Please model this.
Amino acid sequence: MDVERIRRDFPIFNRKFHGHPLAYLDSAASSQKPTVVIEAEREFYEQRNANVHRGVYGLSEEATDAYEKARERVARFLHARDPQEIVFVRGTTEALNVVASGLGQTRLREGGRVVTTVMEHHSNIVPWHMLRERAGIDLRFIDIDDDGRLRLDGYDDALDGSAKVVTLSHVSNVLGTVNPVREVADRAHDSGALVVVDAAQSAPHRPLDVEALGADFVAFSGHKTLAPMGIGVLWGRAELLRELPPYMGGGEMIRSVHTDRVDYADPPARFEAGTPNVAGACALSVALDYLERVGWDDMAAHEHQLLERAFRLAAERFDGTIRIYGPPLSEPHDAVLSFSVQGVHPHDVATILDREGLAIRSGHHCAQPLMNRLNVPALNRASVYLYNTAEEIDRLFGALEKVNKVFAA
Model:
């Protein structure tokens, strides 16, 4: 994979911080955008800007056609049976809230059980807590082992017939753990539960097949997948989407409105109230095309090589003062390196690295139950993507040596 050629597609890498070239190692939070994606969004506003679906004039028909073609493109990416199973939302957070809110009105009653995991992002915990507070559902958490693997034996008690929903991340945003979603889904379905998958961290790195995953709902965010902020996707099985009530009311999501009743539109329109982010959807389509041209296998191999280099440098140069969290690289592990530096707060680490032009994340990573399980207040996280280089990994560990020297002094 020609990383230098790829980097030329991303104008932000012309920037410097504190006199150093930008080394962006925070793609798990949000990816950078190639010029073709930026231009796709601009082209919509310059050439096709109109509201969609109800206009009978030519410009609106062009905008509608572009929007629906983007829906078809996402359906191909997810191997969905029908583009009408694709709902455009703002991101994974909104998608998971749509599902939780809808199921809270249909399948989840007081005492109904939702099974999640301690490694989830808050976006896949808080909506279910809101149902616990509002409707009295039973919320259970599956534990992990000390290396960050999901404790599958935890499902033995949780799936006893009371579980109505099982929800989990495909890939942990902190540990990089790739969860065995299909195995969990098969066990959940055998128990009569629906399966909701947070694919925010997997969609940027691998093509998804919702049927192969065995999921009933899948959510991902465009902004982590080279696309603009403010566009995301909820996929749901058609029969389940038809069962869910609307999440918001307004224009576009109705069939008819009367003084004594309202008739809702079929999905996906039912869940796309108001003016959608048409430009974002068009740019997401272009982003998926870009990733496909790069090649998923080549990208995965490149990211794995970067992680291997990072693990090796940590072991060779730091004599145990750096601890890496998560499963070993001999097991499925995606694009994330979370670590602590002995005796140094993660925020101090990130601040010193910033002075070297290195952008990493520090904090609880919207995963406080996981931080509690790991018995740490916070961690540093470096996340790699297709545009990162071996030289940037070397810069990272060179800067970490400076961190050790500063705090040793």
Observations:
- The chain is about 40% helix and 15% strand.
- The radius of gyration is 22 Å.
